[in-house]
Amino acid sequence: MAVIVRIPSPLRKLTGGASEIEAKADSIGGLISTLDSTYPGMRERLCDETGSVRRFVNIYVNDEDIRFLTNQNTPLKDGDQVSIVPAIAGGRI
Amino acid sequence: MPDGVTSRPVIAMDKIKGLKCRECGKLYRPDPLHVCEFCFGPLEVDYDYDAIAARISRETIAAGPKSLWRYIDLLPVEKEATVGLHGGFTPMIRAHRLGQALGLDELYLKNDTVNHPTLSFKDRVVAVALTRAREFGFDTVACASTGNLANSVSAHAAQAGFRCFVFIPSDLESAKVLGNLIYHPTVVAVEGNYDDVNRLCSEIAGEYRWAFVNINIRPYYAEGSKTLAYETAEQLGWRAPDQVVVPIASGSLLTKIWKGLKEFERVGLISNVKTKVNGAQATGCSPVATAFSEGRDFIKPVKPKTLAKSLAIGNPADGYYALKTARETGGVIASVTDDEIVAGIHLLAKTEGVFAETAGGVTVGVLKKLVEQGAIGRRDVTVAYITGNGLKTQEAVAGTLGEAIYIEPSLEKFQRRFRLKET
Q: Are A54 and B39 an interchain contact pair (Cβ–Cβ within 8 Å)?
C-alpha cells in the first residue's frame, strides 16, 4: 500500500532533499520502520527512547493528528497522505 | 540562522551556560535559536544557579532599580539592561473587597494593568527580549501577537530605535490596533486567527535576519515573565503564595511564574515553595483546560471563538508544560464563558477599582469558580495575575454598562432628579 509522506525541511537532510516521498506501509508504526530502513536515522528523530512519537513531532494522516486516532497503530491505506510537522514550527489545525 | 549571529565566541558571562532542549537535553550556545534541531523540542536558557546564588541576595535586589531589572541576575542578558528600563515592579494590591466578595481572607492582585509603557505584562518580556536582541546585534524586531505583545514591541522599538514589524490577526480590538500604529511600526493585519499569524511568522522568521521576539528570541523573551513571580515573592515579604491564578494563552506565563518561584527557592531567597499553580482559560478557547479535565497530556488544537482575544491561541506552544505544571503543583486549569468573563471584569472594577481587559475577566472568573469548588480555600494566600488594561478592550463591556445621567447645571435639577437625603 503506497502512501504519500510529506517531509518537513529539518528532516530533508535524511531524504536527500526530498520533500515528498512514497512509501509502503499498513500502519504509522510500520511506516516509521520503513522510513528508517530507507533513510537511516529517521526513527530516532521521530521517536524517543521508549519508541513513542516525540512530543513536539506531529504526524497527521489525511489532516487528522494520530494522537486522536490510534497513534502508531493508526492504519494506512493506499493513497493516504501522511504529514510530519514539527509542532513549534507553528503546528496546524 | 544568518551568518554573523551564530559566529560569536562562546559566552563570556558566567550566569548563562547556554540553551538546553526541554525535551532531550541537547545543549546549544546562547544564540537566537528556539527549536532543538534534533527532536524539535523548545529550547530554554540554562543558568549556572550556583554562580547566581553566590552573588544574589535580598539586599542586592532591594538596592536595585524599581523595575523588573532589579532581578537582572536571573535574567538572560549578558550586560546591563538597555531597553525597557521602567517596566515591571507594578503594584501588589491587597484585595480586601474582592476577597470578601469571593470568600478569601488574603487575596492579592498583581496589577500589570499599569505596567510601563503599554499597560500589560508584555512590557516585561519585551524589555528582556529587546535588550537581548540588541546584544545579538539585530536592527529589526518583530512579533506575532494577539495585541498586547504587538503594542509593547512597537513602543519599545520606537524608544530603542529598532525597525519594527508587528503581525496581528485582522479582527483585533480597535484600541489594540491603534496602540500599535501610534508608535509608527509596520503593522501587518493577517486575515486569520492568531495561529495563522504565528504560522506565517514562523515562515517569515526563516527568511529574514530579524529578532522575532516570540519565535527565534523566545527562550530569552519568555524569561521576562519570571519577574512577575519574583515581584510576587518580594512584595509578599519574601514568601511564596499558597495559590496563584494565571491566565493561559500560549501557556508560557504560567510555566514561568512557577519557574520564577522555584528559582528564588533554588538561589536561597525564599524557602518552602508549595504554591498551587492554577490556570485560567476562556471556554471558547480552552485547549489546555479541556486536556486538564480529560486527563490527557497532549493538547488538541481548537479554533478560538471567544471575547478574550488576548488569550485566543488555539494551538498553545507551551500548553503541555502549563498542563504539567498545574498537575505537579496540585493546581487546576479551568475555563469560564464569555458572560462570566464580562462579569469578572465588572466584579474586579467595582470591588477594587481596577479595570482589566478580557484576560483579567477570565482570571477573576476562574478564581471565583475555584473558590466555589473548594480548590482554593478561604485561608489560602492567593495571588491573581491581572495582566492587561481594560481601556484596550472596551468592546468587551460595551452594552453591559449603565449610562451617564445628563442634567442641566442647576442644584435644583440635581436634587429633583436624585432626591437624596441631606447629610
A: yes
